[in-house]
Known about the structure:
Helix content is 35%, strand content 14%.
Amino acid sequence: MPIDNRDAVLRDPQILVLPLVEAREIFEATGKSWPPPEARTAFREVTVRDRRAEPWWAGLFRQPRAVATVLIQQECQHPGCHTPRGDLFWDGPVQVWTNPCGHVDRPEHMIIESLLLEIAYANQLLTEDGTAR
Ligand SMILES: [Zn+2]
């Protein structure tokens, strides 16, 4: 199931669970995995705070206890924007950037964006394979 409504996912990340399971089944069946080598240049690799991997109490502190390195789009994904994202800088264990357009990219949204790219790649494999349902 391709997901093209990013905002719906941001409101309810649970709707990603089933497509992710499907995506990983597709990778298993095709012997491919995310990310493919070409994705590392097509997309932007960023290291952000990963609250999913932190104990509950870590949220009380500014310093991350867990990070994730994920791939995101080069452009701002806020509705109707799609202008280039700002330059990356390291801030301790994570990377930060300020978008010239003024939109703020939250770390948890970057992780979701990466999962959406992974799902889209899996669905693309199905299409290329000619086995699309
Ligand atoms: Zn923007």
